Amino acid sequence: MAQESEDEAFAPQADDPASSITVTANGLGTDIGNTGQAVTIIDRGEIESVQGADVERVLRRTPGVSLARNGGVGSFAGVNVRGASSEQLLVLVDGVRVSDPAAPGGGFDFGNLLLGTAGKFDILRGSNSTIWGSDAIGGVVDVSTRGEAGISGNVEYGSRDSLFTSAAGGLKSDGYFVGLTGSWYRTDGFSAAASGSEPDGFEQVVLGGSAFVDITPQLELFAHANWSEGDLDIDGFPAPDFVLADTFETQETRRHWGDVGISYYGNDWTLRAAYSLSDTERDNLDDDGAVSFASDGHSERIQLRGEYRAIGGLTVAFGGEHEWSDYVTTFDTQASVDITGGYIQLGWVLGGLAVHAGGRVDDHELFGSHASFGGDISYRIGGDWRVRASVGEGFKAPTLFQLYSFFGNAELRPEVSTSVDFGVEHGERGRDTHFAVTAFRRDSEDLISFAFSDARPFGFYDNTARARAQGIEAEAGFDVAEGLRLSGVYSFVDAEDRTTGNDLARRPRHFATLFADYEAPFGLKLGADLRLVGRSYDDAGNFTRLDGYEVFDLRASMPVSDGVEIYGRVENLFDDDYQTASGYASPGRGVFAGVRVRM
Q1: For 329, how many CA atoms within 13 A lie in the half-sphere containing its CB?
Q2: Distance CA 233, CA 196 (A)
């Protein structure tokens, strides 16, 4: 690093081979150009160029991805991929499933994921339970934590008395890598209730580590460990009106997850075996600081993934896993469930053609066996153009809450989906001239919703709903002048409840992000981001409308010496007032500045 120029020290690593490798497509690393599935990768260089701790500002650069949040940074944030619910998105961190088994829908709260320790986002759009099993209906997101040799860090301060700092360091040799990363974030925030005035703050501490040790040239031991603790002020529904308003309630969230395993890299074989666990504890405290609700969701998993490379470009990918999950809440006794699954996928890569097809069987302790199938094709047609297509089935097992809580139903079946897409793409994202357009459709059945009967007048969960989501995704990027690049993504998503004919809640039909980046010869970098979101409905009955909105951000950074860079941004420059969930406020104009150091 000491030999790098000021510009090189903070340059996005566009030529890093890892920036074009996806694991979400087939479970092991493969080049994006060798899969017909729709995948977006956002690396650490781009994360740093966006700036800040808020994961929403990075994810909105992905086509097909919309978000809804109950307030500011740290508040509950749901991510919808191609119109699927946030609970139908499989989320991994370093390959470990991190959804909360104690949550009613079993999803992942992106409000607890900040950018300080994130090294890469690998985002697959479309059903892929063939490889990943349960939850992969809308898509798969795998977040890699930072793994950097040397030492780097940042400190940032800004509006609403917000302070964000992160650091990463690592030791690397021919036979090992050991890394540590961490972040701390605090803010006074603003009132989560749009009608309120009492600010709702957030504070979070995150620590993580990773290690890779070569036992032999072919055998590698690896381990990841992550821990976080956060305190969030929340608004509630106090008496006597029972509408969203200022309260002094808080939520404490403690999470830890990690894995340990061994990998084998041979001439014809790749094998990866691992044991992983994930745990999420939440405590909700009332105005007096007493615990009003507590939950603990825990899962453990053993898995084996592998690939055999036969002759003539033929590959056989395979895997198996067994997962134990359990939960307990203030109002529900401890319950658990097991699921076992295995898959096989054949692949063939020859010249510009790549084809994959596979199947999977999962056996659930309660509902029995379920089969999933999928395939994809990618073909380069010359001139850096390629066509791609995929078909995939997805399923989501009923959550422990849906099975065993007071409202539970042990007879529930899994939610199921079938998705297809077809796309044309030129070039690669973030490089030279890039253009891609993808048409998609996903049909979902046996969706779990809340129902009522004479026998259970307080309600229960049942398989009653059907949905369809279809649309178009487009993305493009161009170098329009020396140092100046314009990029953008646009999505049209028609997500419909096929039982009622209504639009699915909080799913805008039109949304886009336009972003521009300029780098001067002397190192100054300027950027701008414009988020455009059309109107949607807040509820399944389509009674409450959410207006569309536009948010415009400005960014700048400048290296001041070898390994030292100052940066700053203005978020929501025009102070647009908008809501992504009815009654919940979103951040107004904010000004932030910071410094990065690398050694």
Answers
A1: 15
A2: 13
| pLDDT at 598 (0 to 100) | 94
Task: Provide the CA 39 distance to its chain's centre, in angstroms.
Answer: 12
Measured distance CA(73)–CA(225) in Å, rounded: 24
Mean pLDDT for 373-381 is 95
Distance of CA 337 to the CA centre of its chain: 25
First to last CA, the chain: 6
Q: In three state form, how does the secondary structure of 38-66 look?
A: EEEEEEHHHHHHHCCCECHHHHCCCCCEE
Contacting residues for 550 by C-beta, under 8 A, at least 6 apart: 530, 531, 532, 533, 574, 576
Neighbouring-strand partners of residue 553: 529
- Cα(573)–Cα(565) distance, integer angstroms: 23
- Amino acid residing at 185: Y
Q: List the structure tokens of 34.
A: 């060798």
3-state secondary structure of 440: strand
Sign for the CA dihedral angle at 130, 511, 122, 52 comes to negative
Residues 6+ apart with CB under 8 A from 421: 37, 38, 125, 126, 389, 390, 438, 439, 440, 441
Residue 543 and residue 500: Cα distance in Å, rounded? 13
Phi and psi at residue 7, to the nearest 5°: -65, -45
Q: What is the DSSP string of 181-248?
A: EEEEEEEEEE-SBTT--S-EEEEEEEEEEEEEEESSSSEEEEEEEEEEEEEEEEEE--TTTTSSEEEE
CA 126 to centroid of chain Cα atoms: 13
- For residues 394 and 137, the answer to whether their CB atoms sit within 8 Å is yes
CA-wise closest residue to 167 among 203, 208, 202, 204: 208
Q: What is the pTM of this model?
A: 0.93
User: Which residues, including other chains, have CB under 8 Å from residue 178's CB and lie 6 or more apart?
Assistant: 170, 171, 209, 210, 211
Q: Which of 68, 16, 78 is nearest to 47 (CA)?
A: 16
What gap in Å lies between CA 342 and CA 491, rounded to an integer? 34
Peptide bond into 17 cis (omega under 30): no
Place of tokens 């909700």: 284
Residue 358 contacts residue 317 (beta carbons within 8 Å): yes
Asked whether 190 and 233 are in contact (CB, 8 A), the reply is no
> For residue range 507-547, what is the model confidence (pLDDT) as tens digits?
999 999 999 999 999 999 999 999 999 999 999 999 999 99
State whether residue 16 is helix, strand or coil. coil
Three-class SS of residue 361? strand
Contact 521, 6 (CB under 8 A): no
∠ CA 7-184-519, rounded to 5°: 20
What per-residue string of b and e applies to 109-133 under the rule 16 or more CB within 10 Å gives b?
A: bbbbbbbbbbbbbbbbbbbbbbbbb
CA distance 383 to 395: 38
User: What digits encode the pLDDT tens for the residues 543-590?
Assistant: 999 999 999 999 999 999 999 999 999 999 999 999 999 999 999 999
SS3 377: strand
